[in-house]
Design goal:
The structure holds two protein chains of two kinds. Chain A is an all-beta fold. Chain A contains no helices and eleven strands. Chain A has a single domain, classed as Immunoglobulin-like. Chain B has one domain: Immunoglobulins (Immunoglobulin-like), CATH 2.60.40. In chain B, the strands form three sheets. In chain B, strands 2, 5, 6, 10, 11 and 12 form a six-stranded mixed beta sheet that branches. Classes of the chains: A mainly beta, B mainly beta.
Chain lengths: 116, 113
């Protein structure tokens, strides 16, 4: 079974530039999560999709971050414009369905973003 | 605020030593509890989980964790560690009825051969 795919694996940009990350979840997984993991911290949930609808985006900095999941499969996370404090690993995870009746989250390899 | 505390940021053990990693959560209601592991160069993966029933849960690779509700704790244990257990370990919880997983800051374990 193919895992969660993410690209790119690494990205270096200057502050105020834009960047986009892509995630392809495991086939058949309805729920998709984006996490931000700053060095020395645990993953922090940014946004959760159930199919193509947003379940929770309470921790997404909406003035600069946006995410979409068109057609309920792939997802993109965008930062525009980037700030130094956005340097982090961005993790994508998917599960068969959402947490109320538990299904394991499977994580992708992450995208390491460095903002200079 | 809902949060998870992992008391040890770095742990160094020799092979065959016993392991206990502390985890305490801050939430007054029912929770689901998890330990995740990230081996060097690999993805985060689930080690074990607690939803209900027996508070002592067993996971992969000989790990176990005990949920003590009165202490809001979910400590991870292994009686005898191996060099291959070198990894970063994250405790997480999911407030019942919600979708927001809350992770701790992680503990880096290094096992010396």
């Amino acid at each position: 079974e193919a895992g969660v795919a993410q690209s790119p694996r690494y990205k270096i940009i200057e502050k105020r530039q834009s960047v986009a990350f892509w995630c392809n979840p495991i086939s058949g997984h309805a729920t998709l999560y984006w996490y931000q993991q700053i060095l020395g911290q645990g993953p922090k949930l940014l946004i959760q999709f159930q199919n193509n609808g947003v379940v929770d985006d309470s921790q997404l900095p909406k003035d600069r971050f946006s995410a979409e999941r068109l057609k309920g499969v792939d997802s993109t996370l965008k930062i525009q414009p980037a700030k130094l404090e956005d340097s982090a690993v961005y993790l994508c995870a998917s599960s068969f369905t959402s947490g109320a009746s538990y299904n394991e989250q499977f994580f992708g390899p992450g995208t390491r973003l460095t903002v200079l | 605020a809902q949060s998870v505390s992992q008391h040890n940021h770095h742990v160094i053990l020799s092979e065959a030593a016993s392991l206990e990693l502390g985890c305490n959560y801050s939430y007054g209601g029912t929770v689901n509890l998890f330990w995740y592991v990230q081996y060097p160069g690999q993805h985060l993966q689930l080690l074990l989980k607690y939803f209900s029933g027996d508070p002592l849960v067993k996971g992969i690779k000989g790990f176990e964790a005990e949920f003590i509700k009165s202490k809001f704790s979910f400590n991870l244990r292994k009686p005898s560690v191996q060099w291959s257990d070198t990894a970063e370990y994250f405790c997480a919880f999911l407030p019942s009825g919600t979708y927001k997983y809350i992770f701790g800051t992680g503990t880096r374990l290094k096992v010396l051969a």
